[in-house]
Amino acid sequence: MIKKFVITLIFFVMCINAASAKHLPSVIDKVFTDTDISKSAVGISIQNIDKPRKFYELNSEKPMMPASSQKIITTMPAIKILGENYKFSTKLYKDTIKDEYYLVLGADPYLTKKELKLLLSNIKLPKDKNISKFYIDDSIFDKTEWGEGWQWDDDLNTSMPKFSSYNIDGNLMKLTLTPLDKQPPQIETNVFYPVVFMNYLKNGSQNDIKLSRKNYISSNEITLEGEIASKTSINVPVNNMEQYFKFRLKEGLRANKLHYYGDFMTKKLPAKNIQLIGEVTHPIDKAIFDIYENSNNLVAETVFKLAGAKYTNSQGSFENSYQIIEDFCSSNVVDLSNVRIVDGSGVSKNNLVTPKFMSEYLIQLVNNYGYGDVTKLLASPNDEYGTLKNRMLFLKDNLHAKTGTLTDVSSITGFIETRKGNKYAFSIIINDAKSTKIQKKSFEEVLLREIYRNL
Which residues in 107-153 belong to E strands, given as ranges? Predict the structure, then answer.
């Protein structure tokens, strides 16, 4: 069936160049006829940017799962709110009266244990003196660490780790697996963290490793099964980020020969008698790249929550972040009635949008921020990296979009400039369990080629 589909695609690419815009619906119908993708499982909305109007619609008002293409909706206004000069920040303060210190967390998704250790080196104490109190201000975010509807069986999926004020090391722990002669393979971690490994690995002819964790029984127990042929490293999402962070904090203090024997208590930074003695920062530019080129879910969720905190001048939470979307849609007359957004990344299958909503939202982004400022954030086929690196190459600089992929879901939403110079906002969403990933992605490419050629 895949072979038949590929032949169909080649036929369209070679033979439909002469089709006019008015023939586009029949072209699309033909693609459906020759594939296993159900027409009822595809939503399409194409709208002219310069003269906003419907051009082509199919199931455009049907709520569908958008996957990561939703990041355009949640994080683009968020980035504008934070500002192009925004920096993720982790700050260390000293009480000017007592030997007490405050670590103020900024939920920096790029903070590493090495940087934390360097930050702690700013604490200068006489050899015979200990730190009296060490507080952590984690108030920037609420305590929700996963999005609504995130799948419990994706607990070990490295592309969707938990996110919180305590972000560090990408919230991942590295395991090194080594086959041993006449012994079970060895499991080593790159840091100390209280976790039990049930090692059912066997020496074999290939690296075929399966990990599982039953949080309802023991959240600190990971089972490894399968076979291993050569030394390899894998990452595991941290299940208790606060605990993991505090272990890294203890290591950082010890590495700097600083003695502290108390607990790391949470306390908001006082308004008086404090002095900033150190700071670790990372610019938002890297986050923009990781969100739109690499579809990084941890970074997207963090940026979304941080923007919500700034927008409402309060703690970062999904509710405060969603207020950004509600206000944007209200002020730009975009209908939210058939839309349900429950996270900032599009990971949850509880997210539901309509293709019409997506394309209309895109047009309002252009009206508010400008076509160039919006499209420069998105992935393009001529990029060296990213989700479009090896796709849509025929379109080169004429396509700027965000892709999305989940089980049974494929989507692409963005902007296309045709060879006639017309600019369109589009959203293509496929929610189909019967077709393969290749079929879904190929359908998207055929459709966008025909839009480019004929509109």
Answer: 133-137
Q: Cα-atom radius of gyration of the chain, to the nearest Å?
A: 25
Task: Give the long-range contacts of residues 214-218, CB within 8 A, separation 24 or more.
Answer: 215/152, 215/155, 215/239
Burial of 429 (0-12, 13-18, 19+ CB in 10 A): buried
Rounded to the nearest 5 degrees, what angle is found at the Cα of 156, between the Cα atoms of 403 and 142?
A: 80
Q: So where are the chain's domains?
A: 2-83+287-454
Question: In a 10 Å sphere around its CB, with 0-12 CB exposed, 13-18 middle and 19+ buried, how is residue 185 labelled?
Answer: buried
Place of tokens 């879904």: 440
Please give the Cα distance from 446 to 398 (Å, whole number).
15
Cβ neighbours, 10 Å, residue 71: 29
What is the side-by-side order of every strand in the sheet holding 221-228? Answer: 196-203, 221-228, 208-212
**Structural contact between residues 429 and 69, judged by C-beta atoms closer than 8 angstroms:** yes
Bridge partners of 43? 429
Determine the Cα–Cα distance for residues 173 and 236; give it in Å rounded to an integer.
5
DSSP character for 268? P
The pLDDT of residue 3 is 52
Q: Which pair of structure tokens corresponds to residue 83? A: 């500002």
pLDDT tens, position by position, 152-207 = 778 899 999 999 999 999 999 999 999 998 888 999 999 999 999 999 999 999 99
- b/e per residue, 392-413, with b = 16+ CB within 10 A? beebeebbbbbbbbbebbbbbb
Place of tokens 């479009």: 388
One-letter amino acid of 414: G
Instruction: Quote the pTM value.
Output: 0.91
- How many angstroms separate the CA atoms of 338 and 377, rounded? 27
Write out the CATH class of domain 2-83+287-454. alpha beta
> Any idea what the Cα angle at residue 358 is, between residues 356 and 362, rounded to 5°?
115
Residue ranges in 231-390 assigned as alpha helix (H): 241-255, 284-292, 297-312, 318-331, 355-369, 371-375
- Residue 15, amino acid: C
